[in-house]
Structures are given as C-alpha cells and as structure tokens.
Amino acid sequence: MMVQLPITLISFGYLQKGIIDPIAADVRSEFKVPVTVREGHLDLSLFYDPARRQYNGNHLLRYVDGEFGNDGCKTMGLFSVDLFIPILTYIFGQAFLNGRTGIASLYRLGDEKYGMAEDEGKMSERFSKEVIHELGHTFGLVHCHNPVCVMRSGTYVEEIDQKERHLCSRCREHSGFH
User: Fold this and answer.
1) Measuring CA to CA, which of 35, 54, 78, 126 is 20 to 30 A from 107?
2) Domain 7-175 carries which CATH code?
3) Mean pLDDT of 106-132
4) Is a pLDDT exceeding 60 seen at residue 1?
5) Residue 99 gets which letter from DSSP?
6) Domain-wise residue ranges, the chain
C-alpha cells in the first residue's frame, strides 16, 4: 500500500468552526490520514472579476498552490466566495490532478441561494462532499461514473445530494486507500 500524505485544510475568510470541524472529521475518516485545520489570509480582491462579479478559480488555485502548497501534504483552500473558471458559469471547487492543492467554496451550496429555507446541515454535507471530491483529484482520481461515488462530477447541488461522502470501491482501489 502506498504511503498517503497528510491533509491541511486552510480556511480563508468567514467560515464557521461548526462547518469546518465536521468537514475535517469527514476528510480524516475517508482518507485515513492526519488532517490539520488552520486559517489563511490573502487579498481576495486580487482574484475578483468585476465583469462577472465572481472570483477566478484558476488564478486562486494557482495562488493557493504557490503560497500555501507543500510537497509534504495535500492542501485544500476553503472559501465562501462565488468561484468561476472561464469556460463555466460557476464552480464549487477544483484541484490539480495528482497535485498538492485544491480549492472549494460553499458559496453556492446553501439552499437559500435557490429560494429555499436555509439548511446548514445540508450545506455542510455538500461542502464536505466537495472537499473530499477535490482531494480525490489531488490523489490522482478522475471523475467516476458510479452515481453515488463522491468522485462523480457534480454541476448542480442536486447532483451533489445524490452522491455519498465516500469513494466507491473502484475509486478506493485505484487511489490506494483501503
């Protein structure tokens, strides 16, 4: 079995501890590696695109990788801003495949964004799935066709809701996590 790297979750901006701690526990449980949580600081205005009124995920990912990435661990930047990449209207997160860094945002994960009552538990579960999904990419996993695998692509929150918080047996085997 391959040796897996520890994971660092870096909270940028306003993210409640009540959301971060359960995500760290889910990540620790899924990947079976030490997980550290810390706060990070950066000037988000550098990544803001006024024409789109969103934050450029490509630029943000490269910055987080360059300033906070570490070859000795996998690093996930956690945000609460609206992310995009030029070819998509929005993204929940992204990561370098087989890389050391990913990012995820809870901005579009809350039901209140879609005209429904706020459900913090559902938002937290979606965020957890998204973080695990992006970390899966850093460990070399591509999108899975299993409808409940956390590595299945998810463009809409309804698709995230259909997934479990876990890698399917095929992805788990491929990644070396047993």
Assistant:
1) 35
2) 3.40.390.10
3) 89
4) no
5) S
6) 7-175
